[in-house]
Recover the amino acids of this structure.
């Protein structure tokens, strides 16, 4: 665990954020590489099909991933208490839970894929490829959940670098396989999905081998796993708020996708590309916000509130400068960036319009995440959650629907910075109010016995 209570605030936060940022960039590259290869070797319908699939995939997995975060906390607390028997029990319980969840998600997803794609108004021309990609992708859920479980275990044990190494290996494997399956073997969207499944399987198997060889206490023996109901209930209680937030956010994105789908294949394809570039551009803000949360938590716990203000200012300046630079780069190079994914002029033009409108306001997004990082670091997660859901469900979705009626597809794009501005303003007002400071608990963590104590 890195000590963030001594030294230059800005330097500490920057160094802490970088490994997380690199890991997330590699994680985003999965979908970016898939989209580039499909857009250039198959066509805009394939690009639209993959783009339409990801909000649905995210909706299916978000709740499980959110709840699994609760187990990470339990593992870290048992590990801190040096209770290795319960560390192993918590890990085994998580593996069993994720295995069962992967089976349920796969069956539900494949069974309901057609009806859900029709519910979100996906054009019939895109439907067959979307269903094919989605169904093949879901066959790898056991590996996806398994790898996320291993990453959670390692982070709970204080190791954040090893999951990054596995992720890099998996990403490189995916790049090679998607080119082989799509560009050489001509397997289309199914090839891109199989490349992802195999890459995730590789990361999962590598992770299992690593754990079994280097961590005696967490060796995985599938024949001797024990499910602990008490630990499961505790992890559910801790992770449920995060899981629900992730679920509502994913459902909101699905609602936005339905509005986009009403404008046809070109718009769906353009949106698919643009949101991938958007997600990549937003990574610095999200990771600086996460790093600031850890910084704030440690310094409030060490009774050094004056460093919180220093950290906030430093993070705001760093993240804000990167946001402005990113906006400039995206606006200037919007056409070449779109051209990486497709040669269709209509898709490029629509995507370029999106990038100009949305990227001009990255500073709003950045500021919102930095402010939220302070509150989460203080232990106040409920209000930031409500602000996020309010900005999405009360502002963005209605604004996208109404403005699209008057301004066409550009109205959907304008709803994004509008929601960011509202979210940023509400976050700042709550920050000024100072109620988040009352959530701080600086008592030392108690040793876990029958109850999980979050101090």
């Amino acid at each position: 665990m890195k000590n963030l209570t001594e030294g230059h605030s800005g330097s500490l936060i920057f160094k802490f954020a970088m490994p997380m940022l690199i890991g997330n960039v590699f994680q985003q590259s999965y979908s970016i590489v898939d989209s580039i290869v499909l857009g250039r070797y198959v066509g805009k319908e394939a690009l639209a099909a993959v783009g339409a699939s990801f909000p649905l995939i995210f909706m299916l997995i978000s709740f499980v991933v959110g709840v699994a975060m609760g187990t990470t906390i339990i593992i870290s607390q048992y590990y801190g208490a040096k209770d290795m028997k319960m560390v192993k029990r918590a890990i085994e319980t998580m593996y069993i839970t994720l295995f069962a969840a992967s089976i349920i998600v796969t069956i539900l997803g494949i069974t309901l894929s057609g009806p859900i794609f029709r519910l979100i108004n996906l054009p019939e021309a895109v439907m067959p490829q979307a269903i094919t990609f989605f169904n093949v992708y879901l066959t790898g859920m056991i590996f996806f959940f398994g790898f996320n479980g291993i990453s959670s275990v390692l982070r709970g044990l204080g190791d954040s670098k090893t999951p990054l190494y596995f992720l890099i290996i998996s990403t490189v494997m995916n790049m090679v396989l998607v080119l082989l399956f799509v560009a050489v073997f001509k397997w289309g969207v199914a090839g891109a999905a199989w490349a992802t499944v195999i890459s995730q399987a590789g990361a999962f198997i590598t992770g299992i081998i690593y754990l079994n060889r280097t961590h005696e206490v967490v060796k995985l023996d599938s024949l001797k796993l024990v499910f602990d109901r008490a630990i499961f209930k505790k992890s559910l209680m801790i992770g449920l708020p995060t899981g629900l937030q992730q679920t509502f956010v994913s459902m909101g994105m699905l609602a936005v996708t339905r509005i986009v789908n009403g404008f046809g294949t070109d718009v769906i394809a353009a949106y698919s590309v643009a949101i991938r570039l958007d997600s990549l551009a937003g990574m610095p803000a999200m990771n600086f916000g996460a790093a600031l949360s850890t910084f704030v938590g440690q310094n409030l716990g060490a009774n050094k509130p004056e460093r919180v203000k220093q950290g906030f200012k430093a993070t705001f300046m760093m993240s804000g400068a990167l946001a402005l630079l990113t906006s400039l780069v995206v606006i200037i190079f919007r056409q070449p960036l779109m051209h990486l994914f497709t040669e269709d002029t209509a898709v490029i033009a629509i995507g370029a319009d999106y990038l100009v409108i949305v990227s001009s306001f990255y500073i709003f997004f950045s500021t919102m995440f930095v402010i939220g990082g302070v509150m989460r670091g203080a232990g106040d997660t409920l209000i930031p959650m409500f602000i996020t859901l309010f900005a999405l469900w009360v502002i963005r979705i209605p604004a996208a629907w109404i403005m699209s009626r008057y301004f066409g597809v550009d109205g959907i794009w304008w709803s994004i910075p509008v929601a960011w501005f509202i979210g940023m303003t509400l976050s700042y007002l709550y920050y000024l109010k100072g109620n988040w400071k009352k959530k701080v608990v600086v008592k030392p963590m108690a040793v876990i016995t029958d109850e999980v104590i979050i101090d």
About this structure: Residues 441-455 have pLDDT under 50 and may be disordered. The CA atoms of residues 110 and 135 lie 5 Å apart. The chain is about 80% helix and 0% strand.
